[in-house]
Each structure stands twice: as structure tokens, then as C-alpha cells.
Amino acid sequence: MKTILFACLVAIAWLAPLSGFAQNRSFITADAGPYSKFEIGPTFRPDGEVTKFGGFPDGNKISYDVGFNFDMAIGYAFNQWLSVEGEFGWNGNQINDVQGFQQSSTYLYNLPFLANVVLQYPIYRTRLIPYLGGGVGGSVSVFDTDFFSNGATSLVGNDSDFVFAYQAFAGLRFEIDDKMSAGVGYKYFGTSDSSYSFEPAFGGPNFNLGISGGGNHMILFSFIWKF
Predict the structure, then answer these.
(1) How many domains does the chain have?
(2) CATH number at residue 112
(3) Of 16, 152, 195, 214, which one's alpha carbon is 20 to 30 angstroms from that of 6?
(4) Looking at the whole model, is its pTM more than 0.90?
């Protein structure tokens, strides 16, 4: 997935400016300007695993329920084809089952902030605009549980970790007018492994929990407003 993301960013960085120069002889055109973007939709997290649970054996498989994503971005379009964005948001999934564990009301959240590059291509004589892009940055990952136990040790509460985050996305937008557009798209959002530390109930050293990273598959509905 990281290779695909890198290829997307290289293609965007090289092809978009060339396209702009070929057609308008100018990189920054009359279409340039700032905009805001809002996205909401479901997020599907594939099975993961426990990578650390104190000194106990790890590798227990984790399954997740369908979650929810919300994000927003402030961007700047250089022309019809190329724009850059600063994005932040929130996504979360409740843990459905952990092999060999008992758990209640346990969630994994992410609060990402990323720098995106977006390539789009308005279809001539239509209001349709296909787009694709990618981004890199970081995320505050939060593990929150009312009860998480392997039968010998129980965890209660929450902790957070800062992790590397990346994404790739593509979709189709429809221009409502010269200021607004709406669309639907697919996003792959991934993070590195995360680690959390919990205080024991009866004293002693902190107990460490590790969760494998991975990617969320998202279907997002978006709205863009140009300033």
C-alpha cells in the first residue's frame, strides 16, 4: 500500500504541472484559490492482532465492527488539476472480538492530521470531476476500554499513542455551482503499530498493550466549498 501511495504522489507531482502548462502556459491559473472540504462515512477495519500484552504470548486476532469517519480539510487549488490540503479528522471502530480475551465497550480511535496532494481532471462539457490523491502525516491513536482481560490481567480506562499515518483516495465529484461541489469516494487510511500503557489496579509497573497497525477502508461523502 505504501508503494502504491508513493507512486500516486510521484504521478501527481509530475503529471499535473505538465498538464497545466500544456493547456494554459501557466501553473497558477484563474481557477486558483482556497477551499474547505468535509467528509463523512463508514469505515471498515480489517482484522488485526494483539502485538503485545505484558509478558503474555501475543498474536491474538482482533475483529472490528463497522465504524465511522469524519474529517475536514483546508486546501489550495493551483489550477483545475492540482491542489494541496491540510486534513484532520476522527475515525473509530468498536472491537467486536479478541481471540482468548473478554472485553466490554472497547474502542480503537484515530485522530489523524495529514498533508495531501490531490489530482483532478474536469470532464469537458460536464459537471463531473474525477480525482485521486494521497497524503502522509501522523495520528493520535486511542485505545479505550471499560473492560479488557485475558483472564489473568484486566485493563480499564484509556491511553493514546502517536503513530505514523498515510492514505490514498479516489472518487468523483459533481459541481453544484462555481463555489460548491459534492461527491463520493473511496479512501484507504493506514497507520503503523500502536502501543499503550495502563496503570495496574494494585500497584506495580505499568502494563503495556500493543495493537497492530493496518488500513481502514472508507466510503466517504464529501462537500467542497470554494472561498
Answers:
(1) 1
(2) 2.40.160.20
(3) 195
(4) no
